[in-house]
Specification:
Bound molecules: zinc ion
Strand order of the largest sheet: 15-14-13-16-17-18-19-20
Helix content: 25-40%
Shape: globular
Low-confidence stretches: 317-347, 624-633, 638-710
Largest sheet: 8 strands, mixed
Oligomer: single chain
């Protein structure tokens, strides 16, 4: 039988036995947090109890509790605020406490004033009467608690050593009940939280860690014993297309997805999962449908939402069984099947099905919100209604986020759910939270407070640039400046000799500014179609194409991507040694080519100075004329008229750019003169309905993918 779960790795270091208090839990959080078999990035929480001297030299019992939203793998001492344990224990037997009252109380228990906020499971950590307590989200434990016979399987394996706890929100009542049940079961070492994860505890840090490893090993064994059918989710119902066909399809589909998912936001970054596991799951008979039954874990709810969109856009000819429709969708309105036609050689993608599917998901989400979220829980705003994850039979899965790291984290949680579903399905069927439970948790005020904890984004957050260059050093300088402002940059060079240098520069930019903030494309700028497609595969699409090549020629491929995104795009030209007049001619040619197409601006900088180019790019894509710096004295040629209207060229410098040249829709409202020339007006009106909640959507769709830590 295929392995159901990747097992955790025992990383205990003997010398760690000497660590005490906060040092001990800090070390343990690194071990647990870095092991994806135990928890995904940002998941779980960890604590230790000890004695310190407070500001008045009083001996004080404390709980060092990992902060809300921190990533266990990367914690520092500051991520473990010290809380007065005796004050926390006061709540063990007191009366009811509201959610906000609980949070305020936890903050007030802080030993120091300026500490990070502890997580919502803090009271459970405090009430479990052991020095070391861990909470994590192992695939195997979640799977064991996600099928109908899971409880019996758990009882048979763990007996009195584990407590089974049905899914509930972690309020003070849960903490008390858990503590009572642990006290009533002296030999107990584990709590199995249904559809959620695990609690372990011990007198020593090592024992606590080993209890988690043991729980995963035993949960794996219990699931394996319960398996009654092959873990193949009913076998493949869609034959994945050949890799090159899949690549071409994705090259067409992803920009349509990115455009639709970006509506009402500054932009999103897509993450593509084409791993064997993802493709097999997405192509299986039962897997995609099971995803509609809810999240595997609360962290999935935070990142992916209650459920992903399933979208079958495989071309005809990939269905394994001619008697089996590629998407046996039943009546699920969220599950969309494209009209794939009858030509088995057809490889062109059905972008209309993508748009329809995303729209259908939005309608489902809004209905889910209306049906399940009470008025009292709506004060903190609605989360974005666009899907954050899309399962593509035959092709894999796509996830979206405000940046590459959050899109990847969303993919991690979707992958975890795929693992859980596969195992639970083999053991009798996947059972998760109902829509009502999901919505209650999604809009639980404590969950909704999370966005406040998120770090600010740069002015170019969500924006993607494709930079093609003859000079890799120049491209790297431009990319670094853009990435510093929150952008993601795909880099293409003209020469194979420069590719290694470009890759090294991209790696440095990522080290400075964040995960996948720059990517060196495998294809060359001299192959425009391939370069544009590879940028699409990297990020889902792009908003600005910067052409720093000697030969040019990539713009038409970039325009095709803008068309598929149905989203305004910009081209910025800069050619060493070319006059402003020559650039102006090229602008005219590109604009003629863009005639009647989706909104496009074409601009040029008549200098090859990378600083000037970067400043011009910031100006083009930034929210408020970009942060144009005093260092830019390049020239912008900015004919920003709608296609089909009179051609008009403004030549100006950075220091006196007139408002009329602004093209940013967000600020157009404050500068009425812009309205008549803003060719994105059409796009704007199309999104009027989301505008009022744009900020909220931005905060949520965009930022909600932040690390969960429940
Ligand atoms: Zn949790």
């Amino acid at each position: 039988m295929d392995e159901l779960f990747v097992p955790p790795v025992d990383r205990w270091e003997p010398e760690a036995a000497l660590l005490t208090g906060r040092d001990a839990v800090l070390h343990r959080s690194h071990l647990v947090g870095a092991d994806p078999a135990l928890t995904k990035e940002g998941g779980g929480n960890f604590s230790a109890k000890g004695i310190v001297s407070d500001h008045r030299h009083r001996i004080t019992r404390v709980l060092w509790m990992s902060a809300w939203g921190c990533d266990g793998a990367a914690t520092t001492p500051a991520d473990f605020p010290a809380l007065r344990l005796d004050d926390l224990l006061e709540l063990r037997a007191s009366g009811p406490l509201s959610e906000n009252g609980m949070i305020d109380y936890l903050v007030d228990c802080g030993l120091r004033g300026e500490q990070r906020r502890p997580g919502i499971e803090t009271l459970t950590h405090a009430f479990i009467p052991y020095p070391h307590v861990d909470h994590c989200h192992p695939d195997a434990v979640i799977a064991l608690t996600s099928f109908p016979g899971g409880r019996q399987a758990a009882d048979a394996e763990f007996g009195d050593e584990a407590i089974w706890f049905d899914y509930r929100q972690f309020d003070v009542g849960v903490a008390r009940e858990l503590a009572d049940r642990i006290a009533a079961k002296p030999g107990c070492r584990f709590v199995l939280l249904a559809n959620h994860g695990l609690f372990t505890w011990a007198d020593s840090s090592e024992e606590c860690y080993r209890n988690s490893l043991e729980a995963v090993e035993r949960a794996t064994r219990a699931v394996r014993k319960a398996v009654r059918r092959p873990p193949d989710l009913g076998g493949q119902s869609v034959n994945p297309p050949a890799p090159e066909v899949a690549t071409d399809l994705l090259g067409e589909l992803l920009p349509a997805m990115r455009g639709a998912l970006s509506a009402g936001t500054p932009g999103v970054v897509l993450h593509l999962d084409r791993s064997d596991e993802a493709v097999r799951f997405a192509s299986s008979a039962r897997g995609p449908r099971c995803t509609q039954d809810g999240p595997s874990c609360p962290d999935h709810l935070v990142t992916v939402g209650y459920r992903p969109l399933v979208l079958d856009v495989t071309p005809a000819g990939t269905v394994a069984d001619p008697n089996h429709t590629p998407t046996d969708t039943g009546t699920d309105p969220n599950h969309t099947s494209a009209d794939t036609g009858t030509d088995p050689n057809r490889t062109s993608a059905d972008t209309g099905a993508v748009l329809d599917g995303i729209e259908r998901h939005r309608r489902w989400y809004n209905d889910y919100y209306e049906r399940h979220v009470p008025l009292t829980a709506r004060g903190l705003g609605r989360r974005g209604d666009a899907p954050r994850a899309i399962v593509l039979p035959g092709l894999g899965a796509v996830t979206a986020g405000p940046d590459a790291a959050k899109a990847r984290l969303c993919a991690d949680h979707l992958a975890q759910t795929m693992t859980v579903i596969r195992a639970a399905d083999a053991a009798g069927g996947y059972v998760s939270l109902t829509e009502a439970q999901g919505a209650a948790d999604e809009y639980w005020p404590l969950m909704r407070l999370k966005p406040q904890l998120r770090p600010p984004e740069g002015p170019l957050a969500g924006k993607v640039f494709l930079v093609a260059a003859s000079d890799d050093a120049c491209a790297a300088t431009v990319a670094d400046r853009l990435a510093a402002s929150g952008a993601h940059v795909a880099l293409a060079t003209e020469s194979p000799r420069q590719q290694a240098g470009m890759a090294a520069s991209a790696a440095e930019i990522c080290a400075r500014h964040g995960e996948r903030r720059a990517v060196a494309l495998p294809s060359l700028a001299s192959d425009p179609e391939a370069a544009a497609r590879d940028a699409v595969l990297a990020y889902g699409g792009f908003d600005v194409f910067i052409d720093l090549t000697r030969s040019g020629g990539l713009a038409p491929a970039a325009l095709a991507v803008f068309d598929r995104q149905r989203r305004r795009g910009s081209v910025l030209l800069s050619r060493d040694g070319r006059s402003a007049g020559e650039l102006e001619l090229e602008i005219g040619r590109l604009e003629a080519d863009a005639e009647g197409r989706f909104g496009l601006t074409v601009n040029a900088v008549a200098t090859a100075d990378p600083v000037a180019v970067a400043e011009a790019a910031l100006f083009l894509a930034g929210p408020v004329f970009g942060p144009v710096s005093d260092t830019w004295d390049g020239t912008v040629l900015s004919p920003r008229q709608a296609p089909g209207t009179a051609h008009h060229t403004v030549q100006t410098t950075a220091h006196d750019i007139p408002y009329e040249s602004a093209h940013d829709t967000v600020h157009a409202t404050t500068h009425d003169t812009v309205h008549e020339s803003a060719h994105e007006t059409a796009q704007e009106s199309a999104h009027d309905t989301v505008h009022e909640s744009a900020q909220d959507v931005h905060d949520d769709t965009i930022h909600d993918n932040a690390r969960g830590s429940r």
